[in-house]
Amino acid sequence: xxxxxxxxxxxxxxxxxxxxxxxxxxxxxxxxxxxxxxxxxxxxxxxxxxxxxxxxxxxxxxxxxxxxxxxxxxxxxxxxxxxxxxxxxxxxxxxxxxxxxxxxxxxxxxxxxxxxxxxxxxxxxxxxxxxxxxxxxxxxxxxxxxxxxxxxxxxxxxxxxxxxxxxxxxxxxxxxxxxxxxxxxxxxxxxxxxxxxxxxxxxxxxxxxxxxxxxxxxxxxxxxxxxxxxxxxxxxxxxxxxxxxxxxxxxxxxxxxxxxxxxxxxxxxxxxxxxxxxxxxxxxxxxxxxxxxxxxxxxxxxxxxxxxxxxxxxxxxxxxxxxxxxxxxxx
Length: 331
Ligand SMILES: NC(=O)c1ccc[n+]([C@@H]2O[C@H](COP(=O)([O-])OP(=O)(O)OC[C@H]3O[C@@H](n4cnc5c(N)ncnc54)[C@H](O)[C@@H]3O)[C@@H](O)[C@H]2O)c1
Hints:
Blueprint: E1 5-10, H1 14-26, E2 29-35, H2 39-49, E3 53-55, H3 58-64, E4 69-72, H4 76-88, E5 92-95, H5 103-116, E6 120-122, H6 130-140, E7 147-155, H7 172-188, E8 192-201, E9 207-216, E10 220-227, E11 234-241, E12 244-249, E13 254-259, E14 269-272, H8 279-295, H9 303-322, E15 326-327
Parallel strand pairs: 1-2, 1-4, 2-3, 4-5, 5-6, 7-10
Antiparallel strand pairs: 7-11, 8-9, 8-15, 9-10, 11-12, 12-13, 13-14
The protein binds nicotinamide-adenine-dinucleotide.
Nicotinamide-adenine-dinucleotide is lined by residues 10-16, 35-38, 41, 58, 73-76, 78-79, 96-97, 123, 125, 161-162, 175.
């Protein structure tokens, strides 16, 4: 490996181009090549992000360029195949969420990373956001006492393009619900035992609004509302415990704490966590990926954690179809 990690991009759309300059801030990298069938997208990757060359297909890029690592930011149905192709060429991989279309496909990506002996990290960026890190500290330090429940939501207006195509992995559960499920697992550190869901479909056939309960080990209940039928973006996680409650909103960065266990929080207190709500978390997640690659270790958000979120998404769809709770197996 050279001093500067040689990076390739698969999928030079909105998010791939957005993340690219942050790679430079996160570590010593050379942006070698970008692959995208859209001439406009790959041209912008070269002109605006500084990639050295561009390819219409990622197979050709992987075959011709000597890359240390690849960033995958393509439509959801392409995430797993692109990861597998990059891993097979000996690249470390940073892949956007949800990493695959379902848990079974996700497990194949994890197996490919293990077989290749390469780092695989998934872009659950909100784990690196300061308002959510503050919420996690409150949970970990016992400010809320023993945790009993979570209420959370994430959503927006309807998205255009491939996000309205069921065959391309569109829908709000895959796009935003995956983040929220990962947040709850990360905050509480408990496995899921059961999922019970109701879902409304959009006219396009993708999920529009999903209301679901995930029962976690220890009897903790997490209530989720994931929708694309809301006129504004929303993202909140509120954790309840025997000692109090705390709520973290993004991107407003508002944190509300009310606890009978800590004198400073006897009355509800709301603070605004300072700092930019977006850029630092993306730089931090990419810095973690580059450090994991250099140190030859697993990254903070590995593929198995993405599979865990995908298993819940699978169960949300299955429960909504069956009208019954779905039990989750181990792993
Ligand atoms: N973590 C976050 O904050 C965040 C935010 C937005 C999007 N995302 C994720 O990023 C990924 C991409 O989403 P987006 O919003 O950038 O979508 P997008 O539609 O803007 O970009 C996707 C790009 O992939 C390209 N593409 C299609 N087929 C391809 C192929 N065979 N090979 C290479 N590229 C191909 C498209 O031409 C397009 O340019 C998704 O996984 C999405 O969930 C994450």
